[in-house]
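Lab notebook: predicted structure, single chain.

Context: the supervisor wants predicted structures on file for every construct in the current expression panel, including those that have not yet been purified. This is the next one on the list. No modifications to the sequence; it matches the entry in the shared construct table.
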Amino acid sequence: MTTVSKYDLRKEDINEKIRSSIYKKTSNIKLFVYKNTGFRTTNISKKIQNDEMLGWCYQLCFILAPFYENCILNRGILNRLNRPYEHCWLDIYEEGEWYTFDPCFNVCCRKVTYDSSYDTHINVSFTGDEIRQFLLLNSTKQKPFGIKQGIIQKTNNINDIQYGNSIKYTISSDKNKIKAMRVKYI
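Prediction complete. Output recorded below exactly as produced.
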């Protein structure tokens, strides 16, 4: 059986309102990246749409998951690539159906399509709520107007929530919801 390419998955006919809703959340995150002249803020949404995030699956899914109401971060294997490929992706529940958002492949399609196309095997999952609470509880500095800052040190255990993520972050929150985030990988 052959694999459907990410380009074919992008063409799947789904309600454009749902696709837009899922992609819109990425605009709430700014990432500090190092350029020749020092750290600069970059727009995650544009980088995803320009296919510039390949290789950032663990880090990117971790910071995106808390923005979705019903979301599951999955870490596992895509069995139908050239070799079984260790990967991370998000399953998001919108309007009565599950969709997969893979920000590294820039794909948003039905979960069943993604799972069958790549023959996915899930090793560990975390909900967006679990990650949101982890970020809020690990904030080390509290500032006015719901601004919180924190540092997360990564672990090498894929079953740990902070696997693959050493970050400094600033979040804007309101009533236990994260409204915006700035992230610097350290």
